[in-house]
Amino acid sequence: MKKTRISVAAAVAVILAASACSSGSSSDKNDAKAQPSVSASAAPSSAAASPAGSPSTSAPTTSASASPSASASSSAPATSASPTAKPTTAKPTTSKPTTSKPATTKPPAKPAAGNLDARCMTGRAMCVDKTTRRLTWVIDGVPQYSTEVRFGSAELPTREGAFTVQSKSKDHVSTIYHTSMPYAMFFSGGQAVHYSPDFAANGYNGASHGCVNVRNKALIQQLFNEARIGDKVIVYRS
Asked: pLDDT tens for residues 68-99?
């Protein structure tokens, strides 16, 4: 009997030991259930860890930067949406430059011969009219130009008659009155046709000492240059 009990007990111990190796706790079962998910997640890594030379089973990765459209757009030349504006070139002006014509001084209009004395109509003559108070330079009956003149006072009148130019003195000064007589052309004693600064300044408010005063300086200069010794000087009233 004792032997039988020992053998039974030993048999029971063997059975319990064998069941303890094949069974597990609830936590072990849960770990076993979670095992497939771990192996599935690890699959790509195992594929990535495949030995060199084995064909890769992973799908080719495509990045946006490596896409054909992106490379085409990067290599294509940049074009503006609006057409390139052509440079505007200013056309040369065709208008002719304005050139101002030089001012031409017209000679004074020739006076009419209506009031001229008949003695002035031949040769070269200074025709001095006391009525109109004008001197007219006449050549061969053609009046050349005319200017205003002033005569002597009632005490010292300008002589009337037909005379000739006896002498000429450009910068003459009177030896009697000590006054300036520029461009003097003497025709009767001390009486002369000459420029008068007083006549130019005061007009007919004064009088000469018997000379024929001229207040147009430019014209008396011209007459002085043109007149010759022996030219006629006719003093009259029209």
From this structure: 343 333 444 444 444 455 555 556 555 555 55
Which candidate, 165, 198, 171, places its Cα nearest to that of 183? 171
The DSSP annotation for 183-215 comes to EEEEEETTEEEEE-HHHHHHGGGS-BSSSEEE-
Q: Which two tokens stand for residue 124?
A: 């070269």
Q: Are 227 and 144 in contact (CB under 8 A)?
A: no
For β-strands 191-195 and 212-214, DSSP reports them as parallel
What is the overall mean pLDDT for the chain? 72
Beta-sheet strand order (sheet of 232-236): 161-164, 232-236, 124-129, 134-139, 142-150, 212-214, 191-195, 180-188, 167-173
